[in-house]
UniProtKB/TrEMBL annotation:
<feature type="domain" description="RING-type">
    <location>
        <begin position="282"/>
        <end position="318"/>
    </location>
</feature>
<dbReference type="Pfam" id="PF00612">
    <property type="entry name" value="IQ"/>
</dbReference>
<feature type="domain" description="RING-type">
    <location>
        <begin position="112"/>
        <end position="154"/>
    </location>
</feature>
<protein>
    <submittedName>
        <fullName>Ring finger protein 32</fullName>
    </submittedName>
</protein>
<dbReference type="InterPro" id="IPR042862">
    <property type="entry name" value="RNF32"/>
</dbReference>
<dbReference type="InterPro" id="IPR000048">
    <property type="entry name" value="IQ_motif_EF-hand-BS"/>
</dbReference>
<dbReference type="GO" id="GO:0008270">
    <property type="term" value="F:zinc ion binding"/>
</dbReference>
<dbReference type="InterPro" id="IPR013083">
    <property type="entry name" value="Znf_RING/FYVE/PHD"/>
</dbReference>
<keyword id="KW-0862">Zinc</keyword>
<keyword id="KW-0479">Metal-binding</keyword>
<keyword id="KW-0863">Zinc-finger</keyword>
<dbReference type="Pfam" id="PF13639">
    <property type="entry name" value="zf-RING_2"/>
</dbReference>
<feature type="region of interest" description="Disordered">
    <location>
        <begin position="29"/>
        <end position="50"/>
    </location>
</feature>
<dbReference type="InterPro" id="IPR001841">
    <property type="entry name" value="Znf_RING"/>
</dbReference>
<dbReference type="Pfam" id="PF14634">
    <property type="entry name" value="zf-RING_5"/>
</dbReference>
Length: 356
């Protein structure tokens, strides 16, 4: 009787402990204390800076790290065996095996199955099931689906690890593409140089090759001839301009010599006329020309006058062009009619030309 009562008490106690353990496990599961939060709050700027410093992104180093925090302690129900305990975290050797399996499958070389775009330099995560996705794409999928389930194999839960295999492959691909472009450019350039030196064996290509060669030679000759002709024409223009300057100077000198000779001839004729006329009196004052010490002037009209008489005559005719004084004297009509300004000019120029 006592044994039955004690066993029933022990069962009730165990049942109460199990009920409390299950209630605690359900409460923890619903509150989200077990495992990472599906809807995490936006991290602050200082938290992001600390995370970047921890992961080495600021220094530009590509370090691999696990995104999930440390595993929470087991609940009472899990310790009593009422609920299956979660699988243990993967070790470094297990992560290396998962990564090698992912590399063998070539997941990093393929586009992301969520956004169907290449990984390029964007952050990517490796799941514990060896599948690779964009970090942003996986977070968006978790946020909208409300569960941590692999999009490919539907495994849950999973662990995530940040890797950079896609970025490395993209850099190698870019480097190969750049090297390919450069090698193609260098090969085409060298091939063009070789084609200019070595003629082809095909008859049509060989004919075209020599036609191009002759065309290049012709163009070079035309360019050189054009430059030579331009230089020659420039020299001709300069020579013609210099010759014109010489002829112009010669014409000016010849003209001045002819003018001087003509002037001398006119004065010689004027002196001859004055001698032939044989006038001994001044037409203005009617006094002998050589009786006084006054200067005698010879005009271009071959008349002789006293200088003082001519100056007085010019002063008596201001503001107009007076006729020669000899035109109103005893000189016959039509013999002299030169204007006074010509007389004045001759008087200034030939003040020493007198008649004896």
């Amino acid at each position: 009787m006592l044994k039955g009562r004690s066993s029933s008490r022990e069962d009730r106690r165990k049942l109460a402990v199990a009920a409390a353990a299950l209630q605690d496990h359900i409460t923890r599961s619903l509150s989200g204390s077990e495992g990472p939060n599906i809807f995490p709050a936006a991290p602050s700027r200082s938290h992001r800076a600390r995370q970047h410093r921890h992961t080495g992104f600021i220094l530009g180093e590509e370090q691999e790290y696990i995104l999930e925090p440390e595993a929470p302690p087991l609940t009472l129900a899990q310790r009593l065996g009422l609920v299956a305990a979660p699988a243990g975290r993967l070790t470094a050797e297990e992560w290396a095996e998962v990564k090698s399996r992912s590399l063998q499958e070539g997941d990093s070389a393929q586009p992301c199955v969520i956004c169907t775009e290449e990984f390029r330099l964007q952050p990517q995560v490796l799941l514990s099931c060896s599948h690779v996705f964009h970090m942003v794409c996986l977070k968006s999928l978790e946020r909208f689906s409300g569960r941590r389930c692999c999009p490919l194999c539907r495994r849950e839960p999973y662990e995530t690890r940040v890797i950079h295999d896609g970025a490395k492959l993209y850099r190698e691909k870019c480097a190969v593409r750049i090297q390919t472009c450069w090698r193609g450019f260098a090969a085409r350039k060298s091939y063009r140089a070789v084609r200019k030196l070595i003629p082809p064996n095909h008859p049509q290509l060989r004919r075209r090759y020599f036609e191009e060669k002759f065309q290049e030679i012709n163009e070079s000759l035309v360019r050189s001839c054009c430059s030579d002709v331009e230089v020659f024409l420039l020299d001709v223009d300069q020579t013609v301009a210099a010759s014109r300057d010489v002829f112009r100077l010669f014409d000016q000198q010849q003209k001045s010599v002819l003018e001087e000779e003509g002037e001398e001839e006119e004065w010689r004729k004027a002196r001859e006329k004055a001698v032939q006329r044989d006038i001994s009196d001044c037409p203005i004052c009617l006094t002998p020309l050589h009786s006084t010490s006054r200067q005698v002037l010879l005009l271009s009209c071959s008349h002789l006058l006293h200088e003082s008489c001519l100056q007085a005559f010019e002063r008596f005719c201001p503001g107009e062009t007076p006729p020669a004084p000899c035109a109103a004297a005893d000189t016959p009509p039509g013999l002299c009619g030169a204007p006074t300004h010509i007389l004045q000019k001759i008087r200034n120029v030939e003040s020493t030309k007198t008649c004896g």
